[in-house]
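User: Quick sanity check before I run a bigger batch. Here is a single chain. Can you write out its predicted 3D structure?
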Amino acid sequence: MHINPDTLSGKERYKLMIGSVIPRPIAFVSTKSKDGVLNLAPYSFYTIACFNPMILAFFPIRYKKGDEKKDTFTNIIETEEFVVNVATEDIINELNETSGLYDADVDEFVKAGLTPVESKIVRAPGVKESPVRMECRLYKTLSLGEDKGGSDAIFGRVVHFYADDALIENSRIDEKQVKPIARLAGFKYSKLGEIIEIPRPEV
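Assistant: Done. Predicted structure follows.
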């Protein structure tokens, strides 16, 4: 089947994209509003942008009310800080609880029963139950697309990195112990599964 994206509705484009770009890692992002309200939300449009310096990127989709910004985006623009917590099997239900479109005055830590832990550098707390946490300062933003279905790209520079002692050795993270989860299409998540190691060819 050959498909011209310009002939599709926004919903059809969304379904094709999230069903094709899989699995997607999840940035479990915690922020603190300028008024002190904590916010926590998962984002599966997420990746590494750079490692020198260490920069992460995620892309909150505008779908609350067309061009209305997500609370995470608003908090980051106002405070220029956030934490990316690694999403794991152990907190999958709590993470899912934070994915609702709650009002800005709702504390998702309380809603999900997760524990805010004080960060070392930024004011936004991390998720204590997450074994890997990356404290970030806003590096750059970029507006993509228009209105509903567009996104606001957020690039954050990692200014402090935390990993549970049992998970890390010589700067390497033991992915089996982390037990990361990823997003598929619809309401489906995936676990790590089988790991295949294939060295690059020598040139």
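The first strand starts at residue 24 and ends at 25.

User: Great, the batch can go ahead then.
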